[in-house]
């Protein structure tokens, strides 16, 4: 067989095999492979045509034309198969991708909703909102104050002198210009006196910050609610009544309380208010450290220096104030054993407080 005949028959064989490969292909990827392997730069056709150098010019012409028509034919076949496969694919979609519009939808995550069905409130927020209801029903307003506070409002106006040791107990984070992250909500006492007209009653929920060694009961960030009543003839009995009412409302039962002296530079007299342990009913348990009492509420009558710093005359106006640990209260109410859960971003934790 001459070289020319050889080439011709090779081309015919290639035509045959490609034809059947294309017919048998079942994906667009397979078609691509066929095109690439047969007609690509280093494909089978090119390999065959390398033999052209050994044939006469006339034969070369003939074989060249044959190769071209083979190429056209195969490309046309591939095109046709491509269309067929495409149609098959789209037809199959009606089988594989149909939707049963009668199936009830899967529930969306809570975070999807706005308004009434929105995600959970944090336990601290739950307690805060409840307290806000209780206090507004008693004629209190709800105030807010800055979290980055000046030394004046956080300490000085509250009767902490510059070298007062109590500052040490409330160590915190300072900004470069000498401001600080407030260590308590008490600075808003002075802001309120400056801003509002006496007499008034306010509560101030908010975040506070301390430099703390973290453990199950200490966090660098926690929540308090400051309370303040400014009026004429305010006494300790007002304070006691207020505290008792709020605890009964929040725990939804009567709670026994007791007052102990407590020291804070901005109150005189100052107290620690304890409530009888709700876990053991006063018999003594781990929660109350076997004492039967749990410390919940520091409070007192506002120091005359603080009344003055607020621009009022202590001879005319007196104040009762308390600093409620919102975080602490939420932990007591919901039996949360570790404060670090509260700032944790775990959805599993928050989901429990529906
Ligand atoms: N600000 C105090 C603290 O964080 C708590 C406190 C004590 C607030 C007595 C008061 C108060 O209003 O009367 O430790």
Q: Which features characterize this protein?
A:
two-stranded antiparallel ribbon; rod-shaped; 7-stranded mixed beta sheet; 2 domains; alpha+beta; 42% helix; 354 residues; BirA Bifunctional Protein, domain 2
In short:
Helix 1 runs parallel beside helix 4 (57-96), helix 2 (28-39) packs antiparallel against helix 4 and helix 5 (123-137) crosses helix 11.
Q: Can you tell me about this structure?
A:
- By secondary structure, the chain is of the alpha+beta class.
- It has 2 domains: about 90 residues; about 240 residues, BirA Bifunctional Protein, domain 2.
- The chain is built from 12 helices and 9 strands.
- A 7-stranded mixed sheet has the order 1-4-5-9-8-7-6, with helices on both faces. Strands 2-3 form a two-stranded antiparallel sheet.
- A hairpin with a 5-residue loop joins strand 6 and strand 7.
- Helix 1 runs antiparallel to helix 2 and helix 5 packs across helix 11.
- The longest helix has about 40 residues.
- It starts with a helix and ends with a helix.
- The model has no long low-confidence stretch (mean pLDDT about 90).
- The structure holds 3,4-dihydroxyphenylalanine (DAH).
- The site of 3,4-dihydroxyphenylalanine has 12 residues, from strand 7, strand 8 and strand 9.
Strand content: 15-25%
Mean pLDDT: 89
Reading off the top of the CATH hierarchy, the class of the largest domain is best stated as Alpha Beta
The CATH superfamily of the largest domain is known as Bira Bifunctional Protein, Domain 2
What is the fold named in CATH at topology level of the largest domain? BirA Bifunctional Protein, domain 2
State the helix count.
12
> Largest beta sheet, briefly?
7 strands, mixed
Principal-axis shape: rod-shaped
How do the strands of the widest beta sheet line up side by side? 1-4-5-9-8-7-6
- Helix-strand category: alpha+beta
Task: Please write the string of helix (H) and strand (E) elements.
Answer: HHHHHEEHHEHEEHEEEHEHH
- The total strand number stands at 9
Total number of domains: 2
Q: First CA to last CA: what distance?
A: 89 Å
What is the subunit organization of this protein?
single chain
CATH architecture of the largest domain: 2-Layer Sandwich
